Amino acid sequence: MLETAHHHIRSTGKKLGLKTEQIEKLLEVEAAHEFEIVLDSGKKFKAYRMQHNSARGPYKGGIRFHHEVDRDEVRALATLMSFKTAAVDLPLGGGKGGVSVDPKTLSEQELEELARKYVQYLEKHIGPHKDVPAPDVNTNPKIIDWMVDEYARLSGDTTRATFTGKSLENGGSAGRDAATGRGGVIVLRELQKLAKKPGEKLRIAVQGYGNVGSFFAEVAEVEHPEWQLVAATDSSGGIYVEEGMSATDLSEWKKNRKPLAEFNFGKRISNQELIGLDVDVLILAALGGVVTDGNQKQIKAKYILELANGPVDDSAEEGLASHGVTVVPDILANAGGVIVSYLEWLQNLADEHWSVEDVNEKLNNYLVQATKDIYSRAQQDDSTLKEAAFAVAMERIIAASRA
Ligand code: NAD
To answer: The whole model's pTM is what?
Structure first.
């Protein structure tokens, strides 16, 4: 992931005519915090917070608890956050944190201790105008609430604006849970308009029917009845239904923690089969590195929406472009989450609480503008949307650094 991020930054920097030193500076993180958390039980875990770039505003990015977390992964994700916040024009920078832990091996009490000790180490390096973390893989509003409490206890800060993704009762924002999926719907709708095909019927397959994938499908079902959800998978595999199926029914099934491969309707398919389905749009909402040079030729979809981070490997990009597949890049397609995090931060700083309608309208406005900016840039440069998104973001970061 780090190599892919660096590849995009280097090639964009060269196209924009940046000096080698300027490009190399963008590859570095401004500050790297690496430490060990020792629980009272004696269990030890490596922990990280990488602060990549703050030229446009405070560092912003999640904290993940996962056994595969390492320095390079956190650094790559922090770098991508700087480009994501700039691509959608938020006055924020990029950061990321993580602890190398399998949270399933911890008791609830140990999980709370881990969250609080993470904050104890970083208290001096984060803050409403320095670095504003959020939840990520395996972290949730409950864990963030513990972190907020610990930060308030240590620093005396009562704004709760040092973290986003809090529970609603503790200063979280309405609309945050659905924001990333909803953002994907907005971006796809806007691209249809820009391609002069508004309201066109689309057959859609979703890989990764989790939080992001299910909200995408549920919002699409309400706002775009002309789009048809024909396939969905989770880690168990999934189902294909030629005439389309109800996202509400699928979500109900998943709420009961049942695997999609056991859904009582449709034809069983594997995740590999899903990728090669004859659909218009492939939604990738599970993992990174799913489409590679090895399997890109199977893809028949016209659009791939990267709702996960980096699901299309850079080795696949040229092949996909040459057979007319448009990849909608993660730094645009899944930016809905960070946009509503930004809105949460604004609400906390102003001591306000906005309605879900207000939040969704603001989210919509940011993504309509960002999609337009990136689409126009791709037309102007005759480039892919990914190249255009990186170019738009990099110019904004460089301009802010100069200022
Ligand atoms: P989640 O855990 O709720 O859902 C992930 C889904 O993917 C689950 O249904 C899981 O069963 C499925 N899955 C796992 N392995 C799979 C495989 N090999 N094939 C098919 N499906 C598989 O997570 P989420 O919050 O929905 O996040 C999904 C992705 O989106 C992650 O990569 C995350 O980093 C990224 N993302 C999330 C947000 C957010 O706001 N939650 C924002 C930006 C990016």
So the answer is: 0.96
